[in-house]
Amino acid sequence: EVQLVETGGGSVQAGGSLRLSCRYSGITFDDSDMGWYRQESGDECELVSYISSDGSGYFADSVKGRFTISPDNAKNTVHLEMNSLKPEDASVYYCVAVTRHKPWLAYLRCGRADFGYWGQGTQVTVSS
């Protein structure tokens, strides 16, 4: 059984930092790409970042230069380091695992099971 468990959400002031962590089980990083989505309006999610085991990855324009993504293979964990947070970064963040090199979608319904495996989500609140 595949499980993704996110931790690290919370409340910060604008300009602050948070680190989200996604601990995964039932999959390996060699066979999967790992990423983060965040909820936009309604039940739609926006792709924030992903990383592949070959080091390739992606960041949404809105977070480039502020967010980093890194795997910790020894702990079966992927981290999303978020710096210089803005109020518009506030959202529920979901960790997602997909088959390696599967094309990521910029937007999709949160929790779409046929796309990949999803965590339960972690809330990030940013106050101005």
Task: List its traits.
single chain, 128 residues, mainly beta, eight-stranded mixed beta sheet, four-stranded antiparallel beta sheet, 0% helix, globular
Q: Beta fraction of the residues?
A: over 45%
**What are the segments in which pLDDT stays under 50 over at least 5 consecutive residues?**
none
Number of beta strands: 12
Radius of gyration: 13 Å
- The secondary structure category is mainly beta
Please tell me about this protein's structure.
This protein is mainly β and 128 residues long. The protein has no helices and twelve strands. The strands form two sheets. Strands 2, 4, 5, 6, 9, 10, 11 and 12 form an eight-stranded mixed beta sheet that branches. A four-stranded antiparallel beta sheet has the order 1-3-8-7, with no helix packed on it.
Question: TL;DR?
Answer:
The protein has 128 residues and is mainly beta. Helix content is 0%, strand content 53%.
Secondary-structure blueprint of this entry?
Elements: E1 3-7, E2 10-13, E3 18-25, E4 32-39, E5 44-51, E6 57-59, E7 67-72, E8 77-82, E9 91-99, E10 107-109, E11 117-118, E12 122-127
Parallel strand pairs: 2-12
Antiparallel strand pairs: 1-3, 3-8, 4-5, 4-9, 5-6, 5-10, 7-8, 9-11, 9-12
